[in-house]
Amino acid sequence: MKNKLTHNLGLKLVSVFFAVILWLVVNSVNNPTIDNTFYNVPVKLLNTDLITDSGQVYEVLDNTDVISRVTVWAPRSVLSALDEENIVATADVSELSSLDTISIKLTTNVSSKDISRITGSIDTVKLKIEDKKSKALSLRSSVSGQVPKGYLVGEITTDQNLIRISGPQTVIDQIAKASVDVDVSGMTSDIVTNAEIKFYDEDDNLVDTKNITQNIKTVGVEIKIWQTAEVPVNYSIMGKAASGYRDTGVIEGNGRTIVIAGKPSVIKNITAIQVPAEALDITDQSEDYIAEIDIRDYLPDNVFLADSANAIQTVTVYIERETSKKLEIREEKVRITNLPEGYNASISGLEGSFVIEVIGLSQDVSTIQANNIAGTVDIQEWMNRQGMTEPEPGYYTVEVDFGLSDRVSLLEPVTVTLHISKKDE
After folding, report:
1. What is the pLDDT of residues 138-159, one digit of tens each?
2. What is the signed CA dihedral for 265, 266, 267, 272, rounded to 10 degrees?
C-alpha cells in the first residue's frame, strides 16, 4: 500500500500544482478583480465633541465632507453587491492636524476582507475652527409687493420679538439685523401667516447662516390691511384778537385734505376731520397767528394717517388792524318792528340826522354805504331779552339795530327812548 502512494510521487506533486494553477486561472476568468467607482460619498466626522466641548465651532471647508469619487477594487462578485451606502468614510477629529485637516479612512461595511484596494478623489477633510459666539437680536418685520389702490398696509405684529443665535464668531459678528418679510401683493384683507427669519449685515446684505443655530426659524406674523379715504380738515378759532385788530375769517389750511386709513366699516362714516376751536386761540393776537397742529390728536378712534409725514399741519389765522368809517343816518330810517297788537310805541332822542361810526376790516367797512343802512327797534326781540311775555307800558332806553354783519360793529351803540302804551279800547 505504501508503495502505491509513493509510486511516481514527483509526477503526482506536479499534477497537484497544475491543478491549483488551473483552479486559479479558471477562478480568475470567471470572477476577476475589477474596479468600480462610487459618487458623492459622505464623510462622517467622529469625536466632534472635542471641538464643541471647548467652546468652539467648526465649519467644513470646500465641501470636503463629501468625496466626489471613490474607486473600489475587488472581485466582480463582491463589487456587484456593493453600492454607495456600503462605502464607509470617516474622519476622526482626535487626529486633527496642525493645519486643521483630518485624514479620511475608507472601508466598506460588507465583504471588507475581499477588497483589494479602495481610494477616494480626496483624502482629507478641511476644517475651519473658531470660537463660538452668541447674540440676541430684536426681530424686525417688513412687507414687499403692493396692495391695490385704495388700501394700505397697517400695523404689523409678530408673535416673537427676540431671537437668539450662536455660531462662528466671524459669522455672528457680521449679523446686525434679523427680519421677516411678507409679500402683500394684491391683498385687501388682514394677513395671518408664518414667515422665515433672515439675517442681514449693516448694509442690509443677506448673511449666509448655514453654520449658525437659532432658537426659532420662523415666526407668526399678522398684518393689518386698511382702506384709505381722502377727507378735508376743518378748523375753527376761539378768542378775540387784541383791541383794534380782528381775524379776517381766512384760515390757511382750512379744507386741506389728508388721506386717512382704517377698517372699511369705520372709514365709510368719516366725511371730514374737525379740529376744535381750542387748538387755535387767537386771544390778544395783533398779528397773523401761526400754529402747528398734529392731526393725529384729532383723528377718530381706530383711524390712522396713511402717511405719518402729513401729521403736522401748519395753520395760519390771518389778523389785520381794524379801520373805521363814519356814516350819516337820517332819523326817519329808524323804525319800530314787531309791535304786538293793542299797543302803541314811539321812539325819541334822535336828531334829524345823526352819525354812526362802524369799525372792522377795511374790505368789510369799505362796502358799507349810508343809504343802504336802516335802523330798527324790534319790540319782540327786546321783550325776549327783558323776559317779558307782553309789553309793559312805560319809557325804556333801547339800542338801535342797524343790521350790520358779524364782521362789522359800531364804535358806540346808538340808543333811543322807547315809549310803550296801550291803545284805548
Report:
1. 999 999 999 999 999 988 999 9
2. 140
